[in-house]
Amino acid sequence: MRHEELADVYCSVGRTWSTVGERWTMMILRECFRGERQYEHFQRKLGIGRNVLTDRLHKLTEEGILERRQYQSRPDRYEYRLTQKGEDLYPVMLALMQWGDQYKNPTPPVRLVHKACGHDPLPTTSCAYCGEPFGRRDLTAEFQPDAW
Amino acid sequence: MRHEELADVYCSVGRTWSTVGERWTMMILRECFRGERQYEHFQRKLGIGRNVLTDRLHKLTEEGILERRQYQSRPDRYEYRLTQKGEDLYPVMLALMQWGDQYKNPTPPVRLVHKACGHDPLPTTSCAYCGEPFGRRDLTAEFQPDAW
């Protein structure tokens, strides 16, 4: 199977991974979540080839995760902004960050503060119905007959 | 910058992405989260080249996310099992799945049930301190001076 073909499997992890599961994609989105919007910033910060960066931005734009907007004319300049669909990838980034804080950085590089209560939220996955935090073993999974 | 160099940036997203942010890595872990352990299963299910699969399994084992264990001798056979460090990537997979359920599959292929309450948990990210669900705009971020 080719990576692109993941877009067609009947699996939500697979279809999402076909969109974000490549080198650099989440790193570009991380910059976007920090408020960065410009090609030159992405290129300088990540230090990656322009061909790779252009490819990733093109895919993210085509997917509706980023929107390419002109913000200046003469010369024309464009920026990349997160759409709502892009914003909704924030939990993915947060989960990546938490794992890295736990296993990769004795001193976390970023401290989050929950504005409402003033504390580090130590993001926890909870059940929307009963409110209890849960892990994998607290769940059962029911697959559709044709799930991949 | 090369992908491998992300392992050395002072950023938890970057360091995590250096480990899981390549084609197929999360798809292998998805199979592990479903209880699969064998090379031949991964290969058949994902339909990817043995060179790619071997490389990813080697990296995940070296990283301590999977453990390679002998389960049979004559002939010797090995399986790959999630360690606790691997289990702790479950929130990443859950976040990928949720986004896919929202944007990629009108009918979600898998329905999760929270055993404790019997309902779909619709996983929600909450503050461990005050218990309230939050999104990106409910947070401030304080960066260490040398954060990447």
Polypeptide structure, described:
The structure is a homodimer of 148-residue chains. A two-stranded antiparallel ribbon of chain A has the order 1-2. Chain A is 39% helix and 18% strand. In chain A, a hairpin with a 4-residue loop joins strand 1 and strand 2 (77-82). The longest helix of chain A is centred in the middle third of the chain and has 14 residues, at 90-103. Chain A is built from 6 helices and 5 strands. Chain A has 148 residues and is of the alpha+beta class. Chains A and B meet through helix 1, helix 2, helix 6, strand 3 and strand 4 of A and helix 1, helix 2, helix 6, strand 3 and strand 4 of B.
In short:
By secondary structure, chain A is α+β, with helices and mostly antiparallel strands.
Task: Summarize the SSE layout with pairings.
2 copies of one chain form a homodimer.
Chain A: H1 12-20, H2 25-33, H3 39-46, H4 50-62, E1 66-72, E2 77-82, H5 84-87, H6 90-103, E3 110-114, E4 124-126, E5 139-143
Antiparallel strand pairs in A: 1-2
